Amino acid sequence: MAAAELEYESVLCVKPDVSVYRIPPRASNRGYRASDWKLDHPDWTGRLRVTSKGKTAYVKLEDKVSGELFAQAPIDQYPGIAVETVTDSSRYFVIRIQDGTGRSAFIGIGFTDRGDAFDFNVSLQDHFKWVKQETEISKESQEADTRPKLDLGFKEGQTIKLNIGNMTTKKGGAAKPRVSGSGGLSLLPPPPGGKISVPPIPPPSSTAISNHVTPPPMLKPSNVSSADILLDLDAPASASKPPASAATDLWGDFSTASSAVPNQAPQQSNWVQF
């Protein structure tokens, strides 16, 4: 009851001109023929409207002005006994109309325009094609509900082991990385702490040291005093140095001083007497 309340009526096709004919009863199993009808004198003319409610389609014959219902034919399947085509024309059909009491009768309908007949036929085909698809989907869903569901969960006490490379082992060491294939390339992990070791700078080459010329040290003669060195700055290197007595004369006349050591003969003093 709840599903029926949710269904609504939709309009599939509307044709403003349709003719209705009383047809003679079928004499044999052969199909209906429109040539047996009085096509020039239809029994009723009006508007045709095709609607659907749920899986059932309805062909309704209505008055053009007031829209009053003249007759309707419920259709459960198409093609079927509720709507049949005639054997000698594509513009005429035989439909089975029903009233509210359950009585039914067969009447003929026809369209002046061939395109209107084509639209009427296609609207019924599309509706029942949709009904077929809905039925198949509903059937598949019911079969899926009755199938046993696959249980992919872990049973009680069941465990699973995962082998992942570069994971720390129980001993504290890192597992060896795996090679993906014969030609694969495995990369070692970076050093801990993100530090990068820099190679030491090599010492200067001994060859560079040997190419550097170091002047030899200046040797000081043992018999030359400090005064001689100071006074001989401007003298050429080839000139011979004067004797020690001449160097003493450059400072003036020096007198000897008595030695501070007793019991020794007096010697020249290093102090200058002015």
From TrEMBL:
The UniProt keyword set, sorted, is:
Cell membrane, Cytoplasmic vesicle, Endocytosis, Membrane, Phosphoprotein, Protein transport, Repeat, Transport
Report biased composition (Pro residues) as residue ranges: 188-205
Q: Where in the cell is it found?
A: Cell membrane; Cytoplasmic vesicle, Clathrin-coated vesicle membrane
* The organism's place on the tree of life at top rank: Eukaryota
Region named Disordered = 166-224
UniProt function note: Involved in endocytosis.
Instruction: Indicate what this protein is called per its UniProt record.
Output: Adaptin ear-binding coat-associated protein 1
The organism encoding this protein is Patagioenas fasciata monilis
